[in-house]
Recover the amino acids of this structure.
């Protein structure tokens, strides 16, 4: 059975002003993190993700309740003891001057070294292992300020690993990374968590990536609570709609994505199949159309011909006017320019020759 590394008991997080009045960000948080878990912390801007992370690592005192690290109340631990259990990767770019990558990663050993920071052969071995875990051995001799954002992010993870923590906490580690690097970073964190029996908590804004890759989500909701569960559990329970309600966004539970809601919806019949059908539907929905294979009330009919390399869309309006398009960009632009409700009309658009009339 997995061991619990971090537990919160009736945790209340937030801020107190000078008059001692509390501003509660979230309350009654009873969370458990087991070894090997990778948890993505999600929620809209300003909901309290950073506040929670700071409280979990002992940087900020809770308003009430406790954070237990390996069963010990974090409030009773000395900074050095916390540093042996928890390592942190923050988003902010830290100015490190002329520091080499190796020396930056070596700083991760500070909870274990003596007061002059002398490294033992064991420390050196841990540093090498941390560098190799993030595939940054070749960067060891480089200056940190010369690295790309993505390289620096990997090196910061190596520094956190060199601390040999039980829990690694990362605040928006994907912020500077492109999509392939985000997936790579997520894979790396999962591998480290599983192989080294550590737990990893990361705050993230990329909902799609979190749904696809996290073992566990902690979703902060506007009522000051956290919904914890497998991504699929939260999709099915409707928790995402609750957390990100408003702003004309609708959460499409079928595809696990947010979409812009553009009322009023127009109707179209879309005929075709395969990949072109899927992306045509995507383009039409983006333009405010609801598509069906059959709809007696829809004046607009689009039929897909051709293939992905040579696609062709035939447009029929009130069964009278037909135009052809060779790109979805042209089709959507044309539709946007059409008066609505539609009127039967012959078109004389030079770009799109009518191919036949009925
Ligand atoms: N030092 C502070 N004193 C008082 N209130 C604060 C302080 N820092 C943050 N807050 C408030 O606490 C709430 C939560 O902020 P927090 O930074 O934790 O949100 P977040 O979810 O990390 O946001 P984002 O996704 O935008 O980074 C916000 O309303 C914020 O204004």
């Amino acid at each position: 059975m997995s061991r619990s590394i971090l537990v919160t008991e009736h945790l209340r997080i937030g801020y107190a002003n000078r008059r001692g009045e509390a501003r509660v960000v979230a309350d009654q948080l009873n969370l458990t993190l087991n070894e090997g878990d990778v948890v993505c912390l999600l929620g809209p801007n300003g909901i309290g993700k950073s506040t929670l992370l700071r409280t979990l690592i002992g940087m900020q005192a809770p308003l009430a309740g406790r954070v237990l690290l390996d069963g010990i109340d974090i409030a009773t631990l000395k900074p050095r003891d916390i540093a042996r259990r928890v390592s942190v990767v923050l988003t902010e770019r830290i100015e490190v001057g002329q520091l080499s990558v190796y020396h930056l990663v070596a700083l991760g050993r500070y909870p274990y070294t003596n007061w002059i920071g002398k490294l033992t052969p064991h420390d050196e071995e841990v540093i090498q292992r941390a560098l190799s875990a993030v595939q940054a051995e070749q960067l060891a001799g480089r200056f940190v300020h010369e690295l790309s954002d993505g390289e620096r992010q990997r090196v910061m993870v190596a520094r956190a690993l060199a601390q040999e923590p039980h829990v690694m906490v990362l605040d928006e580690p994907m912020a500077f990374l492109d999509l392939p690097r985000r997936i790579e970073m997520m894979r790396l964190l999962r591998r480290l968590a599983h192989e080294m029996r550590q737990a990893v908590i990361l705050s993230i804004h990329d909902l799609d990536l979190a749904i696809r890759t996290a073992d566990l989500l902690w979703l902060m909701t506007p009522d000051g609570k956290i919904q914890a569960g497998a991504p699929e559990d939260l999709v099915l329970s409707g928790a995402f709609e609750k957390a990100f309600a408003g702003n004309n966004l609708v959460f499409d539970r079928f595809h696990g994505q947010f979409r812009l809601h553009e009322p009023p919806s127009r109707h179209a019949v879309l005929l075709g199949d395969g990949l072109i059908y899927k992306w045509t539907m995507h383009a039409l929905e983006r333009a405010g159309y609801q598509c069906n294979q059959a709809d007696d009330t829809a004046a607009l009919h689009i039929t897909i011909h051709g293939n992905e390399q040579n696609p062709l869309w035939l447009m029929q309006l009130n069964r009278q006017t037909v135009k052809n398009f060779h790109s979805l960009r042209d089709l959507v632009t044309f539709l946007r320019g059409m008066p609505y409700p539609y009127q039967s009309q012959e078109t004389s658009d030079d770009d799109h020759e009518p191919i036949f009339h009925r």
Observations:
- The two ends are 71 Å apart (CA to CA).
- The chain has two domains: 2-245, 264-335.
- The chain is about 30% helix and 30% strand.
- Residues 264-335 form one domain.
